[in-house]
Structures are given as C-alpha cells and as structure tokens.
C-alpha cells in the first residue's frame, strides 16, 4: 500500500511540474480532441512519462524553455502510461509518428508540424533541449506584424 501511495505522489509531482509552468493537462480523449482540434496558432504537446529521461532532461528542459520572450500559443500535456486513452488520442494528431514518451509534438492550427522523440531526448541534456525548443519557438511562434 505504501508503494502505491508513494508512486501516486511521485506521479502527481511530475504532473505539477508542468501545470505550475502554465501547461494545460489533458486527461481524457474528449479533452484532447477538443483542445487540439480547436486550438489556433502553434500548440506544443508534451507527452509526459515516468522514465528517467523525462525527469532528468525532458521536463526540466521544456519548463526552462518557457522562460523565453516568444512562446507557443498553446501548451498541453498528456501523461503516457497514466492517462492512456488521452495519450492515444493525442498521438492521432502526430501524423505517421511512432509512439514515443517522453516526446514533444508541435501542431499548428490542428496540423502536425513535427516532434522531438524520446531517442532525441535521451542523447541530449536538459540545457540542449531547452535551447532547441527556444530556437523552435523563435522560428515558428513569432507573431506576424501588420
């Protein structure tokens, strides 16, 4: 029983790390479909995971990347292995991509743009992930000026 409680507390901390940074957690297929099909602009979907590379690299790098002048219009997360149906629904938006967690997907006006897969996260530091994400934000999330 104690192990179950500890695991749930650990998972909640992993969820909270993202929601404290302003990322909206999507926990059901309906929430995912509504959010991703109606969101305007650039959306980032962080596929959260309990694995070590999520804790040591992906989540810290992603959260740090949000301290940037230019950010995506929408920030979402699903939790692989925890909210399985929501994660599966999100992956339907990641056109022709294999399941990967952790991962970070980019969607613009409902259309898949690309993603950073687990194998790309495993070989990088949190700082390298942060830098790559900031470069992506700066390139694709700039507001058009009239």
Write the layout of secondary structure elements.
Elements: H1 2-19, E1 24-25, H2 29-38, E2 42-48, H3 52-65, E3 74-79, H4 84-91, E4 103-108, E5 111-116, H5 118-122, H6 126-140
Parallel strand pairs: 1-3, 2-3
Antiparallel strand pairs: 2-4, 4-5
Helix pairs in contact: 2-4, 3-6
How many structural domains are formed by the residues? 1
- Give the H and E element order: HEHEHEHEEHH
Largest sheet: 5 strands, mixed
Q: Outline the low-pLDDT stretches.
A: none
Please characterize this protein's 3D structure.
This protein is of the alpha/beta class and 146 residues long. The chain has a single domain, classed as Glutaredoxin (3-Layer(aba) Sandwich). The chain is 48% helix and 18% strand. It has helices spanning 2-19, 29-38, 52-65, 84-91, 118-122, 126-140, and strands spanning 24-25, 42-48, 74-79, 103-108, 111-116. The chain has a 5-stranded mixed beta sheet with strand order 1-3-2-4-5, with helices on both faces. Strand 4 (103-108) and strand 5 form a beta hairpin. Helix 3 (52-65) packs across helix 6. It is globular, with a radius of gyration of 15 Å. The termini are far apart. The model has no long low-confidence stretch (mean pLDDT 93).
Name the features.
146 residues; alpha/beta; Glutaredoxin; 48% helix; 18% strand
Concise synopsis of the structure shown:
By secondary structure, this protein is α/β, with parallel strands linked by helices. Helix content is 48%, strand content 18%.
